Amino acid sequence: MTSGLVVERITVGYDAKPAVLVDASLTVAPGEVLALLGPSGSGKSTLLLAIAGHLQPTAGRICWDGVDIGGVPAHERHFGLVLQDPLLFPHLDVADNVAYGLRRQGDKKSVARAKAADLLAWAGLEGLDQRDVASLSGGQAQRVAVVRALAPQPRLLLLDEPFSALDAPLRQRLAADVRSQVRERGVPTLHVTHDEVEAASIADRVVRLADLAGPDV
Amino acid sequence: MTVLDEPVRTTAAPPARSKRKVRWSAAALLFLVAFLLVPLLAVVAKSFNASSLAILTQSATWRTVFLAALQGCVSTALTLLVALPVTGVLARFRVRGGGVVKALVTVPFVLPTVVIGLAVQQLLPVRWNSGFGAVVFAHVLLNMAVVVWLVGTLWEQLDPRLDMVAASLGAGPFVRFRTTTVPQLRPALFAAAALVFAYTTTSLGVVLVLGTTSTPTLELDIFRRTGILVDLSGASVVALLQLLLVGTVLGGAAYLQSRTSQQVLRRTAAPAKPRPRGAQRVGVAVVVSVTLLIVLAPLAALLVRSLRDNGSWTTSWWSGLSSLDRGTTRLASPIAALSVSARTAVLAAVMAVSVGATLAIGAIRSRSGRVIAAAGLLPLAVSAATLGLGTLLVFGRPPLDLRSTGLLVSVAHALVAVPVVLGAMVPALRSVDTRLQRVAAGLGARPVRAFITAYGTVLIRAGAAAAALAFAISLGEFGAASFLGRSGTPTLPVQIGRLLNRPGEASVGTAAALAIVLAVATAGVVLIVEQLMRVRRR
C-alpha cells in the first residue's frame, strides 16, 4: 500500500470529444509539495478536477492511502482546491469565507469565525475579517482563498495556477508565502503551473505533464 | 479573470452619464404617465368620493384582502417549489430538448387565464375542480415561467467553479445549494416571488372559472363593481387598496433586490454547460418529466375536451373553426382573430421593449434608478379592469379617440409587459462590467459608441428575450383586450372568452380547440426566439 495520493493511468475526457488526458499516472507522498508543469491547454486542470472529484475518469484509478476513491463525491474527499481566480463567496465577508469549511465540519458560527480570525492573522491578513470580499485586491483575495482552503485541514491541497492572474513580483511573494504555509501545516500539495521558475521555487519535486503517460512517475 | 459585479451605486458618479439618457428615461416615463397614470387618475376623479370610503370599514373588504394575500402567499411558495428544480436543471446542464422544455413551461404563462382555468377544470376530478386548491394549482401552472425565466437567466450566469470550491470545503449538494447558490440567486428570487405574488393576488380569469367564496381577489371585486354593479366609486376605492397592497410588496422586493444584487459571482467566459452524468441523469430525467407532466396534463385535458362531444369522439369543433362566424356577428373567423392578435402583439412588443429597455438603462445608470425601476413595475399593481376603464375614459372618446385606430389594445399590452421586460433586462444589464465603457471611451469612442460597445450584445440578447415574452403576453392577454378591443375584430383570447360565456357544449369544445391553436402559436414563438438567441451566443 502506498500512502498519500496515487493516480493510476487515468484517462479523462469531456462528453463525446477525444479525451483531454490519456493514461496519466502520478504520486504525491505525505507532506510532499509536487509541481506539475505543462503548457496551457495540456490537460493539467482536467487532471486536477478529476482528482478533486469533479470529473469522472473514463479509465484508471485514483487512490488515497491505497483505497480507490473513484466513487467518493468531491465533498467527502477532503481535498482543498484553489483555482486561478479566488472564487470567494461574494455574499460572505472574509472571515465567513475562511470559516465556511469549518462550519461544514460542525463548528458553531462564532467558534468558526474566531478560528478564521486566528488563521487570517497567521497568514498575515489580520484585520481583514469583516471586509467585503469585493473590496480586496487581487493578491489579498487569492491569499484569503488559500487560507480558506487550508482552514478545514485538508488531506491534500490542489492548486491550479493560483498566481497566474497576478503580476510577477506579487506572484513570487505569494508563492513563497504559500510554500511556507503548506510546509508549516504539513499538507501534501499538488501545484499545477506553466511557470518553470515558480515550479522550481515552490516544489520539492517537479514533474512534466508530458512525462505522466504510462504506469507511474 | 473573474470580474466581480461592480457596485451599482458607488460614491463616485457612474461614468459617462449624460443628460441625453435622462431625457430618454423621461420619454419612457412619459409613456407610463400618459397611458397608466392619467387613466388611473381619470377613474379616481370620476368616482372617488367620501361616502365610498365606507368600503374600508366593512369587514368583507378586509376578509377579501386577507384571503387574497393568503392565496397569493401559498401560490407563490408552491410556484417557487415546483419551478426551481427545473430552473436549476436547465440552467446548470445541457439537456437534450431543454429549449423545448423551457418553451412548454412558458406556454401556460402566456395563455389567457380563462383558458388555464378551463384546462385545470377539465383535468381535475369534479370533487377538486373548484376552490382554493384548484385556484392555487392553476396559479402555479401559470407562473412557473416567471421563475424559470427570471431566476434561470441569473442562474445560468453563476460561476460553476464556486460550486466546486464549496464542495472541496466539505459542502454536500444540498448544503452547497443553500449556502452558495440561493444567496447569489436572491435578487432574482425576490423579483420572481414579488411578480408571482402580484399576479396571483390580482388574478381574475382563473378565479372566475375555478373560484369559490374561499378565493376572492380584489381584482374580482373591482370587476364585479365595474361591470355588474356599476359602482365606479366603490371600484376605485378597491383599486386603490389593491394598488397599495401590491405596490408595497413590489417596492419591498425592489429594495431587497437593490441591496443584494452586488453579491453575485458571474462566470466570465462561457464554457459549455456539462451534460448530466451518472446519478445526475436520473435526477434531471425525473425533474424534467415531472415538470412536463404538470404542464402538459392540463393542456392534454384541454385537447381531449376539444375532441369530445357528450362522451364520444368528434372532430366537429375543429372542422367548425373555419365557419365559426356563421349566424353571429360577434365572432370573427379564427384566422382573422389570430392575425389581429399577431398584429397587436408585434406592436405591443415593440412598444414594451422600447419603453422597458429605456427604463432599464435609466434604472442601472441614473441616480434616480430605483425610482425609475419602481415606476416600471407600477403596471403590475394596476388591474386590467381599472386600466381598461380608465383608458376608455381618456382615450376612448372625442377629442382623443384612439380606440378606432386599434392601437389602444397594443398600448395596454405594452404596459402589462413592461414589468416583465424590466425583470429580464435589468439583471442582464447589471451584469455588464461598467469598465468596458470607460475602456471604449479611452480608445476614442464617442459616448454613444462606447455605450453600444459595452452594452450592445447584452442589450440585443436580453432585448430579444424580453420582446418574445412581451409578444407572448400580448397574444394571451384577455382583460384589457376585452375592454378596449373593437367588437368586430377580437383577439384570439377575447374570442375564446366570448365562447366560454355562451352556454352549450359546442362553445366549450370550440373554445378548447381555439385555445390549443393559441398554445401552439405561443410555444412556436418562444421556441424560435430561444433558437435565435442560441445562435447569437456562439
Helix/strand layout:
The complex is a heterodimer of chains A (217) and B (538).
Chain A (H helix, E strand, L loop, with lengths): L4 E8 L8 E8 L4 E5 L6 H9 L6 E6 L2 E2 L10 E4 L11 H11 L4 H14 L15 H13 L5 E5 L7 H18 L3 E5 L2 H7 L2 E4 L9
Parallel strand pairs in A: 3-8, 3-9, 6-7, 7-8
Antiparallel strand pairs in A: 1-2, 1-4, 4-5
Chain B lengths: L18 H29 L11 H34 L5 H13 L2 H11 L8 H26 L2 H9 L4 H29 L3 H6 L7 H11 L3 H29 L18 H27 L2 E2 L2 E2 L2 H4 L14 H32 L3 H13 L2 H12 E2 L2 E2 L5 H24 L4 H8 L4 H30 L2 H6 L7 H10 L3 H33 L1
Antiparallel strand pairs in B: 1-2, 3-4
Helix pairs in contact in B: 1-10, 1-13, 1-14, 1-15, 2-5, 2-7, 2-11, 3-5, 3-11, 3-21, 4-5, 4-11, 5-7, 5-16, 6-7, 7-10, 9-10, 9-15, 10-14, 11-21, 13-14, 13-16, 13-18, 14-16, 16-18, 17-18, 18-21, 20-21
Summary, kept brief:
The complex is a heterodimer of chains A (about 220) and B (about 550). With about 220 residues, chain A is an alpha/beta fold.
Characterize the structure shown:
The complex is a heterodimer of chains A (217) and B (538). With 217 residues, chain A is of the alpha/beta class. In chain A, α2 (94-104) packs parallel to α4 and α4 (138-150) runs parallel beside α5 (168-185). Chain A folds into two domains: 5-88 and 139-211, P-loop containing nucleotide triphosphate hydrolases (Rossmann fold), CATH 3.40.50.300; 90-135, no CATH class. Chain A contains six helices and nine strands; from the N terminus they run βββαβββαααβαβαβ. In chain A, the strands form two sheets. A five-stranded parallel β-sheet of chain A has the order 6-7-8-3-9, sandwiched between helices. A four-stranded antiparallel β-sheet of chain A has the order 2-1-4-5. The two termini of chain A are 16 Å apart. In chain A, β1 (5-12) and β2 (21-28) form a beta hairpin. Chain B has 538 residues and is an all-alpha fold. Chain B has a single domain, classed as MetI-like (MetI-like fold, Orthogonal Bundle), CATH 1.10.3720. Chain B has 21 helices and four strands. Chain B has helices at residues 19-47, 59-92, 98-110, 113-123, 132-157, 160-168, 173-201, 205-210, 218-228, 232-260, 279-305, 316-319, 334-365, 369-381, 384-395, 407-430, 435-442, 447-476, 479-484, 492-501, 505-537, and strands at residues 308-309, 312-313, 396-397, 400-401. In chain B, strands 1-2 form a two-stranded antiparallel sheet. Chain B has a two-stranded antiparallel ribbon with strand order 3-4. In chain B, α7 (173-201) runs antiparallel to α10. The two termini of chain B are 20 Å apart. The model of chain B is unreliable at 1-18 (pLDDT under 50). The chains are: A alpha/beta (217), B mainly alpha (538). The interface between A and B is large, with 39 and 34 residues.
